[in-house]
Design goal:
The protein is mainly beta. The chain has a single domain, classed as Deoxyuridine triphosphatase (dUTPase) (Deoxyuridine 5'-Triphosphate Nucleotidohydrolase, Chain A, Distorted Sandwich). Helices cover about 10% and strands about 35% of the residues. The protein contains two helices and eleven strands, in the order H-E-E-E-E-E-E-E-H-E-E-E-E. It is an enzyme of class 3 (hydrolase). It comes from Peptostreptococcus stomatis DSM 17678. This is dCTP deaminase, dUMP-forming.
Amino acid sequence: MILSGKEILKNVESKDIIIEPFDKSRINPNSYNLTLSNELLVYENDLLDMKIPNKTKMIEIPEEGLILEPNKLYLGRTNEFTKTEKFVPMLEGRSSTGRLGLFIHVTAGFGDIGFAGYWTLEIFCVQPIKIYPNTQICQIYYHDIHGDYDLYKSGKYQNNTGIQPSLMYKDFE
């Protein structure tokens, strides 16, 4: 079952859901809008390898905006730190961004119960588009969980402080 916006607010107030910073005006009927930080990460090589760390570089998104190129993967992150040990967090793009051909979270929108950190966004566009920092770019929503469960404890992405490139190479170690 998905939490309503009113339930999200109630659980933020009781600290069962942490969203920092939190702005009550961004609550939707069944989700909460998250914003884009002012940095992006891009891979430097055209060929990526799952078994090794792939070299990246940071790009700043200026206040006046940045034009993204089609067919290129950009990694961004939310300004908001989120955490919950009671619900399953899920991340989706907003319909307003999707209608511009901007895909915010191409895969991996399913969060683990117990995840704490900033969300890395897999950003891809179908035509050139200008983006801006602090834009309400995606939405988080929460599912109830039933039955026994373990909290997310992986060291890969837990308690991150910045944009996280793929750490899949660690699966091969």
